[in-house]
Amino acid sequence: MRLSGFAGDIARRNDDEDSVKLPWNDYSRKLSPLKLTVFIALFLPVAWTAGHALTGNLGARPLTEAIHQQGLWTIRLILVALAITPLKSILAWQRLILVRRMVGVAAFAYVLLHFTLYVADENFNLVVVASEIAKRIYLTIGFTALCGLAALAATSTDRMIRRLGRKWHTLHRLVYVICALGLIHYSMQSKLEQWEPTIADGVFLWLMGYRLLAWKFAVRGRLGLGWVAGLGTVATVLTGLGEALYFNIAFHAPIGRVLMADFSLQTGVRPGVVVAAFSLIVLAAGMARTLALPPARGRSRPRFA
Ligand code: HEM
């Protein structure tokens, strides 16, 4: 059976590579500056937390703050991992795929730490931990997402990718559900503070929308930038509407008034504006890349429409 894409790349390599591969090397075992940079960057959030904890600068409840920080970085890294496929295509930057697995595995490491710190906060009383997970729906959802990420991390070795073949792709699509569960867990525990969760929801919408459009309309793996512009508009509007609906249900705030806040900075930068900025930056980078690409034979430019 001939495999395509990531699983195919892995399958074509020799079995003995597993034993010598270093995280910062590429497939030809040469040092990859991109992989090395990302590898180091992935340690920075935990180093920041450890540094602040050791110097007594993690606030009045350091353990709670550490739980929050690792949870935040888990969801951010899942979103970054999900952004790699669209960015690789929009920026015509094939090597970006080299860091996707590393980012995904790091997300799992962060959630494991998040969970371990939570267990520590419960004085390592596993009976209490288990009953809390069963009782509190936001913890049940978080724990389900953690189990899903564990399954993905366990099947992320070259050997498992080769062994699972096409099934690997199907299994790893679970990450969409895992991310949705992580976002629900995040929103539920954040209660009144919904600014960053709403931004994360908007970015997730964009990432899922991109996949849907690429599946339907991409030509040779590339989605026209006209579609990318349309997607950004829809994700921005839905983020704004989602926030307005939340304020309406939770505080009976008129939907129109919340939407108007998107057009002024009086209540700070609203989530819809951040999602609009994200969409515009990606679009502008895609356009710049299109103009910079030399029209080479056999290589298609990213299309504007
Ligand atoms: C993929 C899975 C998970 C993700 C993405 C995730 C993400 C998050 C995020 C983003 C926060 C909020 C941080 C903040 O507001 O500053 C959070 C809080 C929290 N999470 Fe998770 N989490 C996951 C799994 C779990 C699991 C398995 C548990 C424990 C069973 C857990 C327990 C908690 C607790 C206790 C809080 C703080 C709640 C509070 O202070 O009221 N999470 N998580």
What does this structure look like?
- The protein contains 13 helices and no strands.
- It has 305 residues and is an all-alpha fold.
- The radius of gyration is 21 Å and the shape is globular.
- It binds protoporphyrin IX containing FE.
- Protoporphyrin IX containing FE binds at residues 64, 67-68, 71-72, 74-75, 111, 114-115, 118, 133, 139, 142-143, 145-146, 149, 182, 185-186, 189-190.
Structural class given helices, strands, pairing? Answer: mainly alpha
Given as residue ranges, the uncertain stretches (5+ residues, pLDDT < 50) are 14-19
Compute the number of helices: 13
Q: Major sheet: size, sense and barrel closure?
A: none
The hetero molecules present are: protoporphyrin IX containing FE
The ordered H/E elements are HHHHHHHHHHHHH
Report helical residue fraction.
Answer: over 70%
The Rg value, from CA coordinates, equals 21 Å
DSSP E strands, number: 0
Q: Note the overall shape.
A: globular
Tell me which oligomeric state these chains represent: single chain
Average pLDDT rating? 90
DSSP strand (E) fraction? under 5%
Report the end-to-end length measured between terminal Cα atoms. Answer: 35 Å
